[in-house]
């Protein structure tokens, strides 16, 4: 196998004990899009889902977390991240990047030549 074609793939999420997923990459990507686009409707369109489904997923995440992730922007149609939502998104990005980099490094150290992931 060609090492240049080998990639490390990971999927991470946080769970509540005995309750399942708290949030994961899908929720974090939706928050990122809301932050970039300022709109849940535009974020939903980018994700290929209805506004209603996106709103439901967001509400489910907020209920499980017990904190608001986004807030309505007064005077205009749109949403922005709450300070907690921004902190959660930034922490997620750092955590994901650090864990993936560690996993890549360990895979390079542990796997034999020909299986070591390059990316």
Descriptors:
single chain, 119 residues, mainly alpha, Arc Repressor Mutant, subunit A, two-stranded antiparallel ribbon, two-stranded antiparallel sheet, 54% helix
Largest sheet: 2 strands, antiparallel
CATH class: Mainly Alpha
Tally of DSSP β-strands: 4
What CATH calls the topology is: Arc Repressor Mutant, subunit A
Determine the CATH superfamily: Winged helix-like DNA-binding domain superfamily/Winged helix DNA-binding domain
Task: Count the domains.
Answer: 1
Which descriptor suits the 3D outline?
A: elongated
The gyration radius over C-alpha positions equals 18 Å
**Strand adjacency order, main sheet:** 1-2
Q: In sequence order, what are the helices and strands, one letter per element?
A: EEHHHEEH
What structural class results from the helix and strand content? mainly alpha
The CATH architecture would be Orthogonal Bundle
**Gap between N and C termini, in Å?**
15 Å
Mean pLDDT: 90
Low-confidence stretches: none
Please state roughly what percent of the residues sit in beta strands, choosing from under 5%, 5-15%, 15-25%, 25-35%, 35-45% or over 45%: 5-15%
Concise overview:
This protein is mostly helical and about 120 residues long.
Blueprint of the fold:
Elements: E1 14-16, E2 20-23, H1 25-37, H2 40-47, H3 51-65, E3 70-72, E4 79-81, H4 83-110
Helix pairs in contact: 1-2, 1-4, 2-3
Report on the structure:
With 119 residues, the chain is mainly alpha-helical. It has four helices and four strands. Helices cover 54% and strands 11% of the residues. The strands form two sheets. Strands 1-2 form a two-stranded antiparallel ribbon. It has a two-stranded antiparallel ribbon with strand order 3-4. β3 (70-72) and β4 (79-81) form a beta hairpin. α2 (40-47) packs across α3. The two termini are 15 Å apart. 17% of the residues are buried.
